[in-house]
Amino acid sequence: MNVLKKTVNISLIQLAGSTPDKFANLARAESLIAKTMEQYPKTEVIVLPECFNSPYSVKLFRKYAEPIVLNDAKKAPSVFKLSQLALKHKILLIGGSIPEIEETTGKVYNTSLVFNSAGELVGQHRKLHLFDIDIPNGITFKESVTLSPGNKITTIDNSEQSGLKFGLGICYDMRFPEPAMYSSRVEHANCLIYPSAFNTVTGPLHWHLLAKVRSMDNQVYTILCSPSRAAEGLTDEFGDPVYRAYGHSLVVNPKGEILVEAGEEEEILNCELDGSVIDSIRQAIPIGFQRRFDVYEQVKLADE
Ligand SMILES: O=C(O)CCC(=O)C(=O)O
User: Is residue 1 domain-resident?
Assistant: First the structure.
């Protein structure tokens, strides 16, 4: 079932990599959202990148973390700002992700917040799969040093307003086909959205492939939004190299074709998602109902 009955105008903001000043990062997001609305006034949905308000560093996530409380600019300035911006511009805002602290447990999560055009929080996703990898002579990263994983698959239904019903994941989550399939097949999402920040080692290897395969397997749109790439050789307050995101934010259609793609600099992308493309590819290549769950019973997720 495809609930995307109209076209949706969507913009992705490939924001400059976050500085150590949280309020400067929020102000940057605010001004780029305003610029997007000026340049692309038909925009109904805006997507921001992973950790857009904080440096991407396991040593710093806790310092930048805020609780998810509404209407409290002091306690949760990023949450407040995202809500205000969604309301001001009357958009569905997929607010990248921010480090979240759960006050009752002291646990820190990498969390994506979604606000509707009334500025209401309509969904949130805690990164389900933490980015713990070790590629010799490539990159070592261990989010689990400070972050805890979320425990649920997130599908957000904004079909009444924008037409979008989307599976929401954060970066490394895109490597796992099961939640994407669950959102698309069981919950009938028409789009998968991943605020992300791949790097210069795994980006060239897998970024485009992953976006295309998630779209192709599920015959839905896939949207990846990254920060722009930081200059080479910068170090942070600990003397550690500043994380260099891959860039290349993009939108892939349900056929697996890239519709728009950014380079490595700060950039705004805009495109239209068209629900009829989902219907036509599903008719032409009907893998949705050709599945043989009678043969691979154990991986059955839902009947067509
Ligand atoms: O999966 C990858 O290669 C990169 C993932 C990542 O950078 C992240 O989850 O933040």
Answer: no
